[in-house]
Amino acid sequence: MNIPMLDLKAEYALLRDEIEPAVCDALAACQYIGGPNVKAFEAEAAAYAGVRHAISCASGTDALLIALRAIGLGPGDEVITTPFTFVATASTVVMCGAKPVFVDIDPRTFNLDLDQVAAAITPRTKAIVPVHLFGQPVHLAPLKALCDKHGLKLIEDAAQSFGADYAGRKSGAYGDIGCTSFYPSKNLSAFGDGGLMITDDDQLAAELRVLASHGSRVRYHHHVLGYNSRLDEIQAVILRIKLKRLDNFNNRRIAIADSYNKDLAGLVETPFADGHGRHVYHQYTILSDRRDTIQKVLTDSGIACAVYYPVPLHRQEMFAATHGSVRLPVTEKVAQRCLSLPISPMLKDEQIKRITGAIRQALT
């Protein structure tokens, strides 16, 4: 029996008896856009995150784009971020006409190297966008101090860390705006695309809502260039059901990571939790000089695995003209050695043993 990266079929089987009648009720109500479940989900997500405002949108990419627009990002501005992440973190900066400035990563957490951020700040810097990569919160206090000192905005990319904790707050709730994604592989996932922006700032919240709704403050009056970016009612139904189970699912991810850590000790470099926050293991990512050998053995054994990310953003073709001469040695080395293993909350203990056994076989 093959082992997938994320067992969505098993998760659906677990939740089907609750999801299907709730979806049918939403279909029968025929309020497909901006319906009661969207409003209820936003309120429940805000309460869960401990913030005043949660504004839903169509995707995590839209969440980042709208957040950057809301802070006034535009041509001539710069945003400091990580090169070791999904492309949307940086492409949305470019969509605003601004320039991403990539800073190298910490070799153990894979998050931004905080010691290098201050040196990257220039008079053109508008914001810092840390990514809580693979579910581990960035140590945000030093970044917040830098932002306060230089008058910058702190936008959290929490697409991979919904439910993680940092300094007594949920991931995404520490900075000016937190952005997350409900893509089906995420810790809190929809049955399609979806996104969310959270903030305690009333003015920013109002601007986020305007930008997500065609730039309109009054119906059919359009004040700024906005977007058609909405979470639909059916996805909201599903997310409401899953949100109630998020902490349990994240706890299971942590337990799986603990099992991996014990079984793989001395074989590979296992994920490092820096203790500044609660890691929720969106991915369980190992490092090894024999990464390709491990990947082949796992694949041949019917065990899914993946390289996140094989090409850092500063080496991507789309950034060749602006970042072609940039060298970030830690990021480049990690990209050559990293491999992510299955981490579904549905993963069984015997499957963990099969996975770690295959890795042991590959290395002996």
TrEMBL record:
Under what name is this protein listed?
A: Glutamine--scyllo-inositol transaminase
Task: State the family it belongs to.
Answer: Belongs to the DegT/DnrJ/EryC1 family.
N6-(pyridoxal phosphate)lysine: modified positions: 186
The Gene Ontology biological process terms listed for this entry are: polysaccharide biosynthetic process
Q: Which InterPro entries match?
A: DegT/StrS_aminotransferase (IPR000653), PyrdxlP-dep_Trfase (IPR015424), PyrdxlP-dep_Trfase_major (IPR015421), PyrdxlP-dep_Trfase_small (IPR015422)
Q: Which GO terms describe its molecular function?
A: pyridoxal phosphate binding; transaminase activity
Per UniProt, which keywords does this protein have? Pyridoxal phosphate
Entries under PANTHER family matching the protein: TRANSAMINASE, UDP-2-ACETAMIDO-2-DEOXY-3-OXO-D-GLUCURONATE AMINOTRANSFERASE
Positions annotated as active site in the UniProt record = 186 (proton acceptor)
Cross-referenced SUPFAM superfamilies, in alphabetical order? PLP-dependent transferases (SSF53383)
